[in-house]
UniProtKB/TrEMBL annotation:
GO terms for biological process: polysaccharide biosynthetic process; UDP-glucuronate biosynthetic process. The gene is ugd. Substrate binds at F173, L174, A175, E176, K227, F272, L273, E274, A275, G276, G280, K346. InterPro entries: 6-PGluconate_DH-like_C_sf, NAD(P)-bd_dom_sf, UDP-Glc/GDP-Man, UDP-Glc/GDP-Man_DH_C, UDP-Glc/GDP-Man_DH_C_sf, UDP-Glc/GDP-Man_DH_dimer, UDP-Glc/GDP-Man_DH_N, UDPglc_DH_bac. NAD(+) binds at D38, R43, T96, T136, E176, K286, R353. Gene3D superfamilies: Cytochrome c1, transmembrane anchor, C-terminal, NAD(P)-binding Rossmann-like Domain. GO terms for molecular function: NAD binding; UDP-glucose 6-dehydrogenase activity. It catalyses: UDP-alpha-D-glucose + 2 NAD(+) + H2O = UDP-alpha-D-glucuronate + 2 NADH + 3 H(+). This is UDP-glucose 6-dehydrogenase. Catalyzes the conversion of UDP-glucose into UDP-glucuronate, one of the precursors of teichuronic acid. Pathway: Nucleotide-sugar biosynthesis; UDP-alpha-D-glucuronate biosynthesis; UDP-alpha-D-glucuronate from UDP-alpha-D-glucose: step 1/1.
Length: 482
């Protein structure tokens, strides 16, 4: 079968998905012009910054890929209509957050940005355009996109070319922090659609670097549902291991030993069994809630409840950790300094969407704690935005409690290193598994803290013996033996 020749791609949305995905396509297909567009001027300016450390998305290896392709066949701009008009293929990679109000609030995806994109494509596209859903979308969104596009199709008139569309679903499975590796050697690429020629055109693009047996073709609905299901299964494993971690802490078992024991059963497998402060990120919670909404919509309340509990357990795990910190610190953290090490939802990303640190910090601020927060990649302005609280200036470690501390008001400030973050603190909470937290010299850090002091290791990254020999007390997620 002959595919449509694809010479020009437009990607709408220069976020965590659109930016890295298009950079890799441009890198691997130098003959295709790839134009990434976004309404957000600041974001586009950052993608065009000559200083590659200023790219708006932090991903290991992304700078090198962008450096090779940018200016050659990869551009970033705010010229959305012109890029759509020039494109043979348009990827929709815009945000689809959970709705905050109206029908389905708290569960359904807010599709206003996808719909706006579809309308813009309908208005500006020329000739035949293949429209690819890249954003994670609720099942049957392609129908919405397709009906908008179909209404804009027209036969050739007055010497102008006919206008027509094909819609494909091509969900992205990259995980943040390993996006470039996941894009360069994916476990699979999924393409759902009805028009075999359009499917072939997209498959040929991936075929430049992905082996053909890894390119799976399905119908549109299976493709959309597979993405939600993959994320729901992964999240379910995390809630399962976190539920067992709580039990381990009461029984003297160690969740890592349990994970190793069950993970060596090839039917279970060893990945995604790390207990921690619960899953964060832009996908897991949103996608499960989406699934829950769909199940209720289709009259399957028991199936909806089943999946909803995966999210409920995750929320419980985060509150459990904050409760535990309060309990160990003699039942109160009011006015106490606590060091939060890590704010991103996982290591190797600057993304804080749904980060467990947000809920845990909120709980502790509510209790009147004074939080020093350090993350090697997260901008303090982002922390202020997530906590909905402006930063205070760091108090003098030697001085007594600040007035805010005495009044029981929770405050936070941004640390610039682990040492200045833990200074004067009663406890250090490790919430992100950054590499540098694995190598901390607790013997040197302990004297900076107010004794008796604790290390709460929600990611199990410290060496328990090293912490204990520094005289600090230790809680480690899922460890009933410490
Ligand atoms: C996820 C999916 O992995 C990816 O396929 C999809 O495209 C988008 O959603 P992402 O959210 O970027 O990717 O990161 P992931 O590595 O899956 O981690 C999600 C959360 O689960 C993080 O907060 C992480 O810390 C947590 N996690 C992961 C655990 O707590 N334990 C584990 O064993 C694995
Ligand atoms: P994701 O993690 O799915 O990539 P992000 O929020 O990081 O999500 O990125 C989505 C991007 O899409 C944002 O930069 C936003 O400005 C952009 N966007 C949303 N709607 C439109 C639109 N109609 N046209 C162009 N860009 C859009």
């Amino acid at each position: 079968m002959t595919a449509f020749p694809i010479r020009n791609i437009c990607c709408i949305g220069a976020g965590y998905v659109g930016g890295p995905t298009m950079a890799v396509i441009a890198d691997r297909c130098p003959q295709i012009q790839v134009n990434v567009v976004d309404l957000n001027e600041a974001r586009i300016a950052a993608w065009n910054d000559l200083d590659l450390s200023k790219l708006p998305v932090y991903e290991p290896g992304l700078d090198a890929v962008v450096d090779r392709a940018r200016g050659r066949n990869l551009t970033f701009s705010t010229q959305v209509d012109a890029a759509i008009a020039a494109a043979d293929m348009v990827f929709i990679s815009v945000n689809t957050p959970t709705k905050t109000k109206g029908l389905g609030a708290g569960q359904a995806s807010d599709l206003r940005w996808v719909e706006a994109c579809a309308r813009q494509v309908a208005q500006s596209a020329q000739g035949h355009t293949i429209v690819v859903e890249k954003s994670t979308l609720p099942v049957r969104t392609a129908e919405v996109v397709r009906s908008i596009l179909e209404a804009a199709q027209r036969q050739a008139v007055d010497g102008e070319l006919p206008i027509s569309f094909s819609v494909l679903s091509n969900p992205e499975f990259l995980a943040e922090g390993t996006a470039i590796r996941d894009l360069e050697s994916p476990d699979r690429v999924l393409i759902g659609g009805e028009n075999p020629v359009a499917i072939q055109s997209l498959a040929e693009i991936y075929g430049h670097w992905v082996p053909v047996e890894k390119i799976l073709l399905t119908n549109l609905w299976s493709s959309e549902l597979s993405k939600l299901t993959a994320n729901a299964f992964l999240a379910q494993r995390i809630s399962s291991i976190n539920s067992v971690a709580a039990l381990c802490e009461h029984t003297g078992a160690d969740v890592r030993e349990v994970a190793r024991a069950i993970g060596s059963d090839s039917r279970i497998g060893s990945k995604f069994l790390e207990a921690g402060p619960g899953f964060g990120g832009s996908c897991f919670q949103k996608d499960i809630l989406n699934l829950v909404y769909l199940c209720r919509h289709f009259g399957l309340p028991d199936v909806a409840d089943y999946w909803e509990n995966v999210v409920a357990l995750n929320t419980w795990q985060q509150h459990r950790i904050s409760r535990l910190v309060v309990q160990k610190l003699f039942g109160t953290v009011t006015g106490k300094r606590l060091a939060l090490l890590g704010f991103a939802f996982k290591a190797d990303t600057n993304d804080t969407r749904e980060a467990p640190a947000i809920r845990i910090a909120h709980d502790l601020l509510e209790e009147g704690a004074q939080l020093a927060i350090y993350d090697p990649k997260v901008d303090p302005q982002q922390i202020a935005f997530d906590l909905q609280l402006a930063a205070s200036s760091p108090p003098d470690v030697q001085a007594g409690p600040t007035r805010a501390a005495l009044s029981g008001e929770g405050t936070w400030w941004s640390g610039t290193s682990v040492a200045d973050t833990v200074a004067g603190a009663d406890a250090a909470l490790i919430l992100t598994e950054w590499h540098e937290f694995r190598q901390l010299d607790w013997v040197a850090l302990a004297p900076l803290m107010r004794q008796p002091a604790w290390v709460f290791d929600a990611r199990a990254v410290v060496d328990p013996e090293a912490v204990k020999s520094s005289g600090l007390m230790l809680w480690r997620v899922g460890d009933g033996a410490v």
